[in-house]
Amino acid sequence: MNHAENRELMHKHHNKIAYLDNPQRNGGLTAEALLDRLHIKKSDRILDFGAGTGYFTLPLARRVDETVHALDTDPSMLALIGDKAQAAAIENIALRSGELTDAALAEGSLDLILASLVLHEITPLGPVLDNMHSLLKPGGRLIAIELEPKTGGPKAPRLTSNGLEQQLTAAGFEVTEKFFPAPSLYVLVARK
């Protein structure tokens, strides 16, 4: 995709990009504030699952010396991440299009998988969690960020924190931390 095509695509997706880049979408949680709490190591090899606009991808890449794999099913989002990385002179991001099973990552090759506001969109979720488990090194962590379902009114598809915790346990993870950085936003840290 050339720059003119990319600009046209970005203009077309302006509202989606503005929404995805808005910290209020994450309950006001900035990428930097969350990453500070997660104790990312310089040597961590990371997958940003459902990377979107790179909200977490770029800050992760600034913190590590290893590759951060940005996986998304939308090529225009990956092009945006590529442009942002180039503008910021960040060279340790690998853009991966498609599904997790198409990502060509080796079993036991990752230290951390971050999945922000994307797991609720996957049905059935179990096989994806199993695949994530296999991609992580022993002791590797899956960081899941989701919103609790709203009570009353129209319901968007969401996962309760307890329901996701049960699914993570069923996939072989041990949930080691659970916190709520905003009233409806939760973070589960699960270790292989």
Overview of the molecule:
The chain contains 7 helices and 7 strands. The protein has helices at 3-12, 14-21, 31-38, 57-63, 75-87, 126-135, 161-170; strands at residues 46-49, 68-72, 93-97, 110-116, 136-147, 174-179, 185-191. Helix 5 links the parallel strand 2 and strand 3 (93-97). The chain is globular and about 40 Å long. The N and C termini lie far apart (38 Å).
Brief description of this entry?
The chain is an alpha/beta fold and 192 residues long. The chain has helices spanning 3-12, 14-21, 31-38, 57-63, 75-87, 126-135, 161-170; strands spanning 46-49, 68-72, 93-97, 110-116, 136-147, 174-179, 185-191.
Topology:
Blueprint: H1 3-12, H2 14-21, H3 31-38, E1 46-49, H4 57-63, E2 68-72, H5 75-87, E3 93-97, E4 110-116, H6 126-135, E5 136-147, H7 161-170, E6 174-179, E7 185-191
Parallel strand pairs: 1-2, 1-4, 2-3, 4-5
Antiparallel strand pairs: 5-7, 6-7
Supply database-style keywords:
192 residues; alpha/beta; 7-stranded mixed β-sheet
How big is the Rg? 16 Å
| Major β-sheet strand ordering | 3-2-1-4-5-7-6
Q: N-to-C SSE series?
A: HHHEHEHEEHEHEE
Low-confidence stretches: 9-22
Number of helices: 7
The main β sheet shows up as:
7 strands, mixed
The total beta strand count reads: 7
Range of strand content: 15-25%
- By helix and strand content, what is the structural category? alpha/beta
Report mean pLDDT, rounded to a whole number: 85
What would you call the shape? globular
The helix fraction, in percent, is 25-40%
* Intertermini distance: 38 Å
